[in-house]
Protein backbone atom coordinates (compact mmCIF):
# COMPACT_ATOMS: atom_id res chain seq x y z
CA UNK A 1 0.00 0.00 0.00
CA UNK A 2 1.09 3.58 -0.67
CA UNK A 3 0.79 7.01 0.89
CA UNK A 4 -2.22 7.61 -1.43
CA UNK A 5 -4.00 4.73 0.31
CA UNK A 6 -3.09 6.22 3.69
CA UNK A 7 -4.65 9.57 2.77
CA UNK A 8 -7.81 7.83 1.51
CA UNK A 9 -8.06 5.84 4.77
CA UNK A 10 -7.72 9.06 6.80
CA UNK A 11 -10.84 10.30 5.00
CA UNK A 12 -12.60 7.00 5.83
CA UNK A 13 -11.76 7.55 9.50
CA UNK A 14 -13.09 11.10 9.21
CA UNK A 15 -16.43 9.88 7.86
CA UNK A 16 -16.84 7.14 10.46
CA UNK A 17 -15.98 9.43 13.38
CA UNK A 18 -18.46 11.96 12.03
CA UNK A 19 -21.20 9.43 12.87
CA UNK A 20 -19.42 7.73 15.78
CA UNK A 21 -19.15 10.71 18.13
CA UNK A 22 -22.87 11.38 17.83
CA UNK A 23 -23.64 7.82 18.97
CA UNK A 24 -20.96 7.94 21.68
CA UNK A 25 -22.58 11.01 23.18
CA UNK A 26 -25.98 9.28 23.18
CA UNK A 27 -24.50 6.13 24.72
CA UNK A 28 -22.58 7.87 27.51
CA UNK A 29 -25.69 9.80 28.51
CA UNK A 30 -27.81 6.65 28.52
CA UNK A 31 -25.56 4.07 30.18
CA UNK A 32 -22.42 5.93 31.40
CA UNK A 33 -18.78 6.41 30.42
CA UNK A 34 -17.20 3.18 31.67
CA UNK A 35 -20.13 1.12 30.43
CA UNK A 36 -19.87 2.61 26.93
CA UNK A 37 -16.08 2.20 26.89
CA UNK A 38 -16.41 -1.42 28.03
CA UNK A 39 -18.86 -2.30 25.26
CA UNK A 40 -17.01 -0.50 22.49
CA UNK A 41 -13.67 -2.15 23.34
CA UNK A 42 -15.17 -5.59 24.07
CA UNK A 43 -16.85 -5.42 20.66
CA UNK A 44 -13.55 -4.45 19.01
CA UNK A 45 -11.64 -7.24 20.76
CA UNK A 46 -14.17 -9.90 19.70
CA UNK A 47 -14.35 -8.70 16.09
CA UNK A 48 -10.57 -8.43 15.67
CA UNK A 49 -9.63 -11.65 17.53
CA UNK A 50 -9.87 -13.92 14.43
CA UNK A 51 -7.48 -11.63 12.55
CA UNK A 52 -5.00 -11.00 15.37
CA UNK A 53 -4.50 -14.28 17.22
CA UNK A 54 -2.05 -15.77 14.68
CA UNK A 55 0.44 -12.93 15.24
CA UNK A 56 -0.13 -12.52 18.97
CA UNK A 57 2.80 -14.70 20.09
CA UNK A 58 5.17 -12.95 17.70
CA UNK A 59 4.43 -9.61 19.36
CA UNK A 60 5.25 -10.83 22.88
CA UNK A 61 8.44 -12.64 21.91
CA UNK A 62 9.55 -9.84 19.64
CA UNK A 63 11.17 -6.48 20.36
CA UNK A 64 10.78 -4.96 23.82
CA UNK A 65 10.39 -1.59 22.12
CA UNK A 66 7.21 -2.81 20.45
CA UNK A 67 5.80 -4.20 23.70
CA UNK A 68 6.54 -0.98 25.63
CA UNK A 69 5.03 1.26 22.94
CA UNK A 70 1.85 -0.87 22.83
CA UNK A 71 1.58 -0.81 26.64
CA UNK A 72 1.92 2.99 26.67
CA UNK A 73 -0.73 3.15 23.92
CA UNK A 74 -3.13 1.06 26.02
CA UNK A 75 -2.74 3.21 29.14
CA UNK A 76 -2.82 6.57 27.37
CA UNK A 77 -5.79 5.59 25.19
CA UNK A 78 -7.74 4.41 28.25
CA UNK A 79 -7.39 7.74 30.08
CA UNK A 80 -7.91 9.74 26.87
CA UNK A 81 -11.16 7.89 26.15
CA UNK A 82 -12.42 8.42 29.71
CA UNK A 83 -11.74 12.16 29.47
CA UNK A 84 -13.30 12.45 26.01
CA UNK A 85 -16.39 10.46 26.97
CA UNK A 86 -16.91 12.52 30.11
CA UNK A 87 -16.48 15.76 28.13
CA UNK A 88 -19.13 14.52 25.67
CA UNK A 89 -21.43 13.51 28.50
CA UNK A 90 -21.37 16.76 30.47
CA UNK A 91 -20.40 19.31 27.82
CA UNK A 92 -21.87 20.85 24.69
CA UNK A 93 -20.61 19.73 21.29
CA UNK A 94 -20.31 23.39 20.24
CA UNK A 95 -17.74 23.89 23.01
CA UNK A 96 -16.07 20.47 23.06
CA UNK A 97 -15.42 19.98 19.32
CA UNK A 98 -13.27 23.11 18.72
CA UNK A 99 -11.10 22.22 21.71
CA UNK A 100 -10.50 18.71 20.36
CA UNK A 101 -8.54 20.27 17.51
CA UNK A 102 -5.59 20.35 19.92
CA UNK A 103 -5.21 16.62 19.16
CA UNK A 104 -3.46 17.53 15.92
CA UNK A 105 -0.53 19.61 17.24
CA UNK A 106 -0.11 17.19 20.18
CA UNK A 107 0.30 14.21 17.83
CA UNK A 108 2.42 16.19 15.35
CA UNK A 109 4.86 17.38 18.03
CA UNK A 110 5.30 13.86 19.41
CA UNK A 111 5.91 12.53 15.89
CA UNK A 112 8.50 15.26 15.30
CA UNK A 113 10.43 14.91 18.57
CA UNK A 114 10.26 11.13 18.99
CA UNK A 115 10.27 9.82 15.42
CA UNK A 116 11.89 12.82 13.73
CA UNK A 117 8.96 12.97 11.33
CA UNK A 118 8.95 16.26 9.43
CA UNK A 119 6.35 17.89 7.20
CA UNK A 120 6.78 20.79 4.80
CA UNK A 121 5.94 24.39 5.63
CA UNK A 122 3.13 24.26 3.08
CA UNK A 123 1.62 21.28 4.92
CA UNK A 124 1.99 23.11 8.26
CA UNK A 125 0.15 26.15 6.85
CA UNK A 126 -2.61 23.96 5.42
CA UNK A 127 -3.03 22.12 8.75
CA UNK A 128 -3.34 25.46 10.59
CA UNK A 129 -5.89 26.66 8.02
CA UNK A 130 -7.80 23.38 8.38
CA UNK A 131 -7.89 23.69 12.17
CA UNK A 132 -9.03 27.32 11.94
CA UNK A 133 -11.83 26.26 9.57
CA UNK A 134 -12.90 23.43 11.90
CA UNK A 135 -13.08 25.78 14.87
CA UNK A 136 -15.17 28.27 12.86
CA UNK A 137 -17.55 25.64 11.49
CA UNK A 138 -18.18 24.15 14.92
CA UNK A 139 -19.20 27.49 16.39
CA UNK A 140 -22.94 27.89 15.91
CA UNK A 141 -22.82 31.26 17.59
CA UNK A 142 -20.23 33.69 18.91
CA UNK A 143 -18.97 32.41 22.21
CA UNK A 144 -17.82 34.52 25.15
CA UNK A 145 -14.34 33.23 26.06
CA UNK A 146 -15.06 33.63 29.78
CA UNK A 147 -18.23 31.55 29.44
CA UNK A 148 -16.38 28.92 27.43
CA UNK A 149 -13.74 28.58 30.16
CA UNK A 150 -16.50 28.11 32.74
CA UNK A 151 -18.53 25.73 30.54
CA UNK A 152 -18.88 22.19 31.85
CA UNK A 153 -16.61 19.93 29.87
CA UNK A 154 -14.12 22.60 28.72
CA UNK A 155 -11.21 21.54 30.93
CA UNK A 156 -12.01 17.86 30.38
CA UNK A 157 -12.09 18.41 26.61
CA UNK A 158 -8.72 20.20 26.65
CA UNK A 159 -6.88 17.54 28.63
CA UNK A 160 -8.75 14.86 26.69
CA UNK A 161 -7.52 16.41 23.43
CA UNK A 162 -3.89 16.40 24.61
CA UNK A 163 -4.18 12.80 25.81
CA UNK A 164 -5.97 11.69 22.64
CA UNK A 165 -3.33 13.41 20.53
CA UNK A 166 -0.74 11.32 22.40
CA UNK A 167 -2.90 8.20 21.95
CA UNK A 168 -3.14 8.92 18.21
CA UNK A 169 0.65 9.14 18.01
CA UNK A 170 1.21 5.90 19.94
CA UNK A 171 -1.44 4.14 17.83
CA UNK A 172 0.45 5.21 14.71
CA UNK A 173 3.80 4.18 16.17
CA UNK A 174 2.44 0.82 17.39
CA UNK A 175 0.90 0.19 13.96
CA UNK A 176 4.29 0.70 12.34
CA UNK A 177 6.14 -1.51 14.84
CA UNK A 178 3.60 -4.37 14.73
CA UNK A 179 0.53 -3.86 12.52
CA UNK A 180 -2.68 -1.76 12.72
CA UNK A 181 -4.95 -4.72 13.51
CA UNK A 182 -2.74 -5.91 16.37
CA UNK A 183 -2.40 -2.40 17.84
CA UNK A 184 -6.20 -2.02 17.84
CA UNK A 185 -6.81 -5.52 19.18
CA UNK A 186 -4.39 -5.28 22.12
CA UNK A 187 -5.61 -1.82 23.14
CA UNK A 188 -9.22 -3.03 22.97
CA UNK A 189 -8.44 -6.11 25.09
CA UNK A 190 -6.57 -4.03 27.68
CA UNK A 191 -9.31 -1.41 28.04
CA UNK A 192 -12.13 -4.00 28.03
CA UNK A 193 -10.40 -5.95 30.84
CA UNK A 194 -9.72 -2.82 32.91
CA UNK A 195 -13.24 -1.37 32.53
CA UNK A 196 -14.81 -4.79 33.06
CA UNK A 197 -12.84 -5.26 36.30
CA UNK A 198 -13.90 -1.80 37.54
CA UNK A 199 -17.56 -2.50 36.73
CA UNK A 200 -17.44 -5.88 38.52
CA UNK A 201 -15.60 -4.53 41.59
CA UNK A 202 -18.10 -1.67 41.96
CA UNK A 203 -21.12 -3.93 41.54
CA UNK A 204 -22.24 -2.31 38.29
CA UNK A 205 -21.61 -5.17 35.87
CA UNK A 206 -25.11 -6.73 36.03
CA UNK A 207 -26.81 -3.38 35.48
CA UNK A 208 -24.36 -2.71 32.62
CA UNK A 209 -25.43 -5.93 30.87
CA UNK A 210 -29.08 -4.94 31.28
CA UNK A 211 -28.40 -1.44 29.92
CA UNK A 212 -26.48 -2.89 26.98
CA UNK A 213 -29.37 -5.22 26.16
CA UNK A 214 -31.87 -2.37 26.18
CA UNK A 215 -29.65 -0.06 24.11
CA UNK A 216 -28.00 -2.59 21.80
CA UNK A 217 -29.01 -0.83 18.57
CA UNK A 218 -27.26 2.48 19.24
CA UNK A 219 -24.31 0.67 20.89
CA UNK A 220 -23.75 -1.56 17.85
CA UNK A 221 -23.94 1.38 15.45
CA UNK A 222 -21.49 3.29 17.63
CA UNK A 223 -19.07 0.37 17.95
CA UNK A 224 -19.03 -0.47 14.24
CA UNK A 225 -18.43 3.15 13.23
CA UNK A 226 -15.75 3.63 15.90
CA UNK A 227 -13.86 0.42 15.10
CA UNK A 228 -13.85 1.04 11.34
CA UNK A 229 -12.60 4.56 12.09
CA UNK A 230 -9.77 3.37 14.37
CA UNK A 231 -8.68 0.66 11.92
CA UNK A 232 -8.69 3.06 8.98
CA UNK A 233 -6.88 5.64 11.11
CA UNK A 234 -4.20 3.16 12.24
CA UNK A 235 -3.57 2.01 8.67
CA UNK A 236 -3.47 5.65 7.53
CA UNK A 237 -0.79 6.52 10.12
CA UNK A 238 1.28 3.50 9.14
CA UNK A 239 1.35 4.72 5.53
CA UNK A 240 1.25 8.53 5.72
CA UNK A 241 2.84 11.11 8.05
CA UNK A 242 1.11 10.99 11.43
CA UNK A 243 0.45 14.75 11.53
CA UNK A 244 -1.28 14.62 8.12
CA UNK A 245 -3.39 11.56 8.97
CA UNK A 246 -4.49 13.08 12.29
CA UNK A 247 -5.32 16.45 10.71
CA UNK A 248 -7.44 14.91 7.95
CA UNK A 249 -9.28 12.49 10.23
CA UNK A 250 -10.02 15.35 12.64
CA UNK A 251 -12.11 16.88 9.86
CA UNK A 252 -15.05 14.69 10.92
CA UNK A 253 -16.61 17.93 12.22
CA UNK A 254 -17.29 18.75 8.56
CA UNK A 255 -19.34 15.56 8.26
CA UNK A 256 -21.44 16.45 11.31
CA UNK A 257 -22.17 19.92 9.94
CA UNK A 258 -23.06 18.63 6.47
CA UNK A 259 -25.40 16.04 7.99
CA UNK A 260 -27.16 18.77 9.91
CA UNK A 261 -27.33 20.92 6.80
CA UNK A 262 -28.78 18.34 4.41
CA UNK A 263 -30.75 16.05 6.74
CA UNK A 264 -31.96 18.37 9.50
CA UNK A 265 -32.17 21.43 7.24
CA UNK A 266 -30.12 23.42 9.73
CA UNK A 267 -29.07 26.95 8.79
CA UNK A 268 -25.41 27.85 8.97
CA UNK A 269 -24.19 31.07 10.51
CA UNK A 270 -21.85 33.28 8.46
CA UNK A 271 -18.70 32.14 10.31
CA UNK A 272 -19.75 28.51 9.82
CA UNK A 273 -20.07 28.97 6.06
CA UNK A 274 -16.61 30.54 5.88
CA UNK A 275 -15.19 27.85 8.15
CA UNK A 276 -16.77 25.06 6.11
CA UNK A 277 -15.30 26.36 2.87
CA UNK A 278 -11.89 26.92 4.49
CA UNK A 279 -11.85 23.46 6.11
CA UNK A 280 -12.90 21.59 2.95
CA UNK A 281 -10.47 23.51 0.74
CA UNK A 282 -7.61 23.01 3.22
CA UNK A 283 -8.32 19.30 3.67
CA UNK A 284 -8.49 18.62 -0.06
CA UNK A 285 -5.36 20.70 -0.75
CA UNK A 286 -3.48 19.00 2.09
CA UNK A 287 -4.40 15.61 0.68
CA UNK A 288 -3.39 16.67 -2.84
CA UNK A 289 0.06 17.99 -1.85
CA UNK A 290 0.76 14.92 0.33
CA UNK A 291 0.01 12.12 -2.15
Would you mind describing this structure in some detail?
This protein is an all-alpha fold. The protein has one domain. The protein has helices at 3-31, 33-60, 64-90, 93-99, 103-115, 121-138, 145-150, 154-177, 180-201, 205-214, 216-239, 242-249, 252-262, 270-290. The radius of gyration is 18 Å and the shape is globular.
Helix and strand layout, with pairings?
Layout: H1 3-31, H2 33-60, H3 64-90, H4 93-99, H5 103-115, H6 121-138, H7 145-150, H8 154-177, H9 180-201, H10 205-214, H11 216-239, H12 242-249, H13 252-262, H14 270-290
Helix pairs in contact: 1-2, 1-3, 1-11, 1-12, 1-13, 2-3, 2-9, 2-11, 3-8, 3-9, 4-6, 4-8, 5-8, 5-12, 6-14, 8-9, 8-11, 9-11, 11-12
Broad structural category: mainly alpha
H and E order? HHHHHHHHHHHHHH
Share of residues in helices: over 70%
The residue ranges in which pLDDT falls below 50 over 5 or more consecutive positions are 144-150
Radius of gyration: 18 Å
Average pLDDT works out at 84
Attribute tags:
mainly alpha, single chain, 291 residues
Quick structural overview:
The chain is mainly alpha-helical and 291 residues long.
Amino acid sequence: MSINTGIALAFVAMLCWGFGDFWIQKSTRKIGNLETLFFITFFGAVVLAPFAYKNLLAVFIGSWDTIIVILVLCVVLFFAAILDFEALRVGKLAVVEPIWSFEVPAAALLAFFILGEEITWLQVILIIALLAGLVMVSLKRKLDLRKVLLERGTILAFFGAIMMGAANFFMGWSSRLSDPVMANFLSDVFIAVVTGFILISTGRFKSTIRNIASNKSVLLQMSIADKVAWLAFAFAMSLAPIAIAVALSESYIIVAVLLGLFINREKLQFQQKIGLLLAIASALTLAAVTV
